Amino acid sequence: MSIPATTCETAPEPKRPGSSRVGLIVPSSNTTMETELPELFRRQAEATGHKYTFHSARAGMKKVTREELLAMVGKAAQCAEAVSDADVDVIAYACLVAVMAQGPEAHVGSEKVIADAAEGNGHPAPVTSSAGALVRTLQEIGAKKVAMITPYMKPLTQMVVDYIEGSGITVLDAISLEVADNLEVGCLDPQNLPALARSLQREGADAVVLSACVQMPSLAAVQAVEDELGLPVITAATATTYEILKALGHKPAITGAGSLLSGARVRPAANA
Questions:
Q1: Tally of CB atoms within 10 A around 265
Q2: Which of 26, 138, 161, 162 matches a 20 to 30 Å C-alpha distance to 104?
Q3: Alpha helices in 166-233 (DSSP H)
Q4: Quick check: 260 and 266 in contact, CB under 8 A?
């Protein structure tokens, strides 16, 4: 049976003024970025009137192991082509540790692979990655020493520590929650994060990375931890959001998610 020509689309739907399309590349088992980012951008839209829609491509990954992470990386270009079919305005590669598993400064190459794939598909767009966004955001706010929390097994956490330190930022302390299954990571309770943050060795710290993982929920705790500790609090999700807004040329105006996204100039505290 043939499909009538009148039912076929011959061109993509035109973009609407006052609205931006955000493309996401996420692990297949991710349940957090597609909840936290839309909520953050809902707050941005509420403050500015500009609307945002989200369009995702998924790459297979269930267990947070080096082997599965590297396999996911190999699918980045294909995912970029798929999500760019939606003619998105920006693409975010939302798997921090998959990029960091490739070695120092790997976000540079990963972002180029995705940008090249989107351009080759006829829909060029600026690209950020959660790994690159976290490092660049910490550098931008002048954070030279940080403490952080990860859900990873200790060897993966050490890999993240090494990656961040390779960018010139000292990690004073890192807590590993040692959860290997990515779906279980997405079920961790963010209300446990304030107590964990209090237990970090923070003397001399310029910022706290409350969640060095795009899958570990943290949004509900960011503002409370920042208010309590008196330090800028960054997460993989808030750093990614910050860079998406920058790529779109939009000033952050998000409430309740820390000073980074409030629109205020973030300056590290003298010490914890």
A1: 8
A2: 26
A3: 182-186, 193-199, 219-229
A4: yes
What residue numbers does the annotated binding site for substrate cover?
A: 30, 95-97, 152, 182, 214-215
The pair of three-digit structure tokens given for residue 264, joined into one six-digit string:
């205020």
What is the per-residue pLDDT across 166-187, written as a single tens digit (0 to 9) for each? 999 999 999 999 998 888 999 9
Q: How far is CA 34 from CA 5, 43, 76, 261, 268, in A?
A: 35, 15, 18, 18, 29
Going from the C-alpha of 106 to that of each of 111, 233, 254, the distances in angstroms are: 9, 24, 29
Give the CA angle between residues 267, 101, 80 to the nearest 5°. 85
- Distance of alpha carbon 216 from alpha carbon 139, whole angstroms: 22
pTM of the shown model = 0.89
Q: Sign of the CA dihedral 186, 240, 245, 140?
A: positive
